[in-house]
């Protein structure tokens, strides 16, 4: 039967038509709500406001590096965490990301400049800081110091990993010490804050960089909006904990749109190649 | 000890607990308080200054809960603002410059969660405290006196040794928060406390802290604590600075 073009389609017909459209053709920007064709988005950024959609660690590495050699790929949660529910969560995250932890570490070249590189992945239990995450970051800082190389870290995290309790908290101090040792050797530590960076990660290595960059509209903070609303009964403003607000308050050096990140990092690395101590 | 973990939580939060100011006055002589972060303001939740311990100058930094409502409004029930952590950082650096040991006394539910604190860089302030704690070459002893809540407590708990009072707790978040995040039910707080291993004894057994000290509830116990601190500082002072720092780093590196 021919379609009657002058009659409104039934809900069933509409549903059938929608089924033919693949899910990932259109994307809605979570910041400015603009809908755009995924195909039009350069480096997965919103053409309207420049917000960078969340990336997996591999995707990010492909985007910013010329070469990348992973280290400590096999490092995973210590055996002492034997809670069944937590173990299940970990295996799901591993399956989803094809990684063993919420951070991928290694050595890279960015615009011919060699550096240590860590990229966190928000798809792995919200990029939370587990013992193995802290261990991988610490080893990266240690090895970079031995190799006399600067370190670049892309942060994205909900904060501490509650399932690992106090051990998660200890990672904040452990990684901070490794940062301190790298910096004492006169080697640069560059941070790129990506959406979202919260809690214990903000309160440790995310805010210890010699230079701190952020992607547009990245959410960065310590206490979450809901915690503030529920504990203090305050309603934070709309632009609360966004990269632009942090820039205004003096907590980051600059905001770099994603398509310019590689070039910006390459230049910063040229200026900070090798140690001074 | 036969008490439950939740009883330990209640004991850590008890209003009978000795105040940080009283502890400071008992542990050091001639306490000289240093106010302000030299940048924006003076946070009442963090008390810091210089005093004498057996005739030797030491820097003491504590997080203070109030005893009256007015005091608690001032110090946000012992939840520091970023300015408090910057004051602590300033005093640690000052101690390092003059070769004075640092003793921190921690009693906080956590860093203050409000709009002001976020706008003034709560995360950055704690991060810099951690970095400073990793850098100072002087002996550094951290003692959790009551509540050791999350990053807000950790900021001052990066010492060569970390001790806890018998009636104190130390955890990544409150048992209420843990229950509500993991089980979506804040009423299962007693169960959460049990599972979290947050009591001084649990954390000692797990190798997170180095010593459980007696609860200070009379003058004799205060004297005993003073003696224990003095002895530890003497031992730590005997080490060459580089070795002391290396041992501090090794202490946290194992986690």
TrEMBL record, chain B:
UniProt entry keywords in alphabetical sequence: ATP-binding, Fatty acid biosynthesis, Fatty acid metabolism, Lipid biosynthesis, Lipid metabolism, Nucleotide-binding, Transferase
Keyword Transferase: yes
Class in the EC hierarchy, top level: transferase
Record EC number: 2.1.3.15
GO BP terms, alphabetized: fatty acid biosynthetic process; malonyl-CoA biosynthetic process
Catalytic activity annotation: N(6)-carboxybiotinyl-L-lysyl-[protein] + acetyl-CoA = N(6)-biotinyl-L-lysyl-[protein] + malonyl-CoA
Gene Ontology MF term list: acetyl-CoA carboxylase activity; ATP binding; carboxyl- or carbamoyltransferase activity
Domain CoA carboxyltransferase C-terminal: 1-235
GO CC annotation terms, alphabetical: acetyl-CoA carboxylase complex
Pathway recorded for this protein: Lipid metabolism; malonyl-CoA biosynthesis; malonyl-CoA from acetyl-CoA: step 1/1
InterPro entries in alphabetical order: Acetyl_CoA_COase_a_su, ClpP/crotonase-like_dom_sf, COA_CT_C
Entry-linked NCBIfam families: AccA_sub
Protein name: acetyl-CoA carboxytransferase
Protein's organism: Paucilactobacillus vaccinostercus DSM 20634
């Amino acid at each position: 039967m021919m379609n009657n073009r002058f009659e409104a389609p039934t809900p069933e017909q509409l549903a059938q038509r929608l089924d033919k459209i693949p899910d990932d053709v259109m994307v809605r920007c979570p910041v400015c709500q603009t809908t755009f064709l995924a195909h039009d988005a350069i480096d997965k950024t919103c053409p309207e406001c420049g917000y960078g959609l969340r990336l997996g660690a591999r995707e990010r590495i492909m985007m910013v590096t010329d070469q990348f050699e992973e280290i400590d790929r096999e490092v995973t949660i210590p055996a002492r965490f034997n809670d069944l529910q937590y173990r299940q969560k970990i295996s799901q995250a591993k399956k989803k990301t094809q990684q063993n932890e919420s951070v991928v570490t290694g050595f890279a070249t960015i615009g011919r400049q060699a550096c240590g590189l860590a990229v966190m992945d928000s798809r792995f239990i919200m990029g939370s800081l587990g013992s193995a995450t802290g261990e991988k970051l610490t080893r990266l800082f240690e090895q970079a110091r031995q190799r006399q190389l600067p370190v670049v870290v892309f942060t994205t995290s909900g904060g501490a990993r509650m399932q690992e309790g106090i051990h998660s908290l200890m990672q904040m101090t452990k990684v901070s010490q490794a940062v301190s040792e790298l910096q004492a050797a006169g080697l640069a530590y560059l941070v790129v804050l990506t959406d979202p960076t919260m809690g214990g990660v903000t309160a440790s290595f995310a805010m210890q960089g010699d230079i701190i960059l952020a992607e547009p509209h990245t959410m960065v903070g310590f206490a979450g909006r809901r915690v503030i609303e529920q504990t203090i009964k305050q309603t934070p403003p709309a632009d609360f904990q966004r990269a632009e607000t942090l820039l205004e308050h003096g907590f980051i050096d600059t905001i770099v749109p994603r398509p310019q990140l590689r070039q910006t990092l390459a230049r910063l690395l040229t200026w900070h190649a090798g140690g001074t101590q | 000890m036969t008490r439950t973990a939740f009883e330990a939580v209640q004991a850590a939060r008890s209003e009978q607990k000795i105040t940080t100011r009283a502890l400071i006055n008992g542990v050091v002589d001639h306490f000289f308080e240093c106010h302000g972060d030299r940048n924006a303001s003076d946070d009442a939740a963090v008390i810091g200054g210089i005093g004498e311990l057996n005739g030797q100058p030491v820097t003491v930094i504590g997080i203070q809960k109030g005893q009256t409502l007015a005091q608690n409004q001032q110090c946000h029930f012992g939840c520091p603002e970023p300015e408090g952590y910057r004051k602590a950082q300033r005093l640690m650096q000052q101690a390092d410059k003059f070769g004075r040991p640092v003793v921190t006394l921690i009693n906080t539910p956590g860093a203050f969660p409000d709009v002001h604190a976020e706008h003034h860089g709560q995360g950055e302030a704690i991060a810099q405290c951690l970095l400073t704690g990793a850098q100072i070459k002087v002996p550094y002893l951290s003692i959790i006196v009551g509540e050791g809540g999350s990053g807000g407590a950790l900021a001052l708990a990066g010492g060569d040794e970390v001790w806890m009072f018998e009636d104190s707790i130390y955890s990544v978040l409150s048992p209420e928060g843990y229950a509500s995040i993991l089980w979506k039910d804040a009423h299962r707080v007693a169960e959460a406390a049990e599972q979290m291993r947050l009591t001084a004894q649990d954390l000692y057994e797990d190798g997170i802290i180095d010593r459980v000290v007696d609860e200070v509830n009379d003058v004799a116990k205060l004297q005993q604590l003073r003696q224990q601190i003095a002895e530890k500082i003497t031992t730590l002072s005997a080490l060459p600075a580089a070795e002391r720092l290396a041992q501090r780093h090794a202490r946290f590196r194992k986690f």
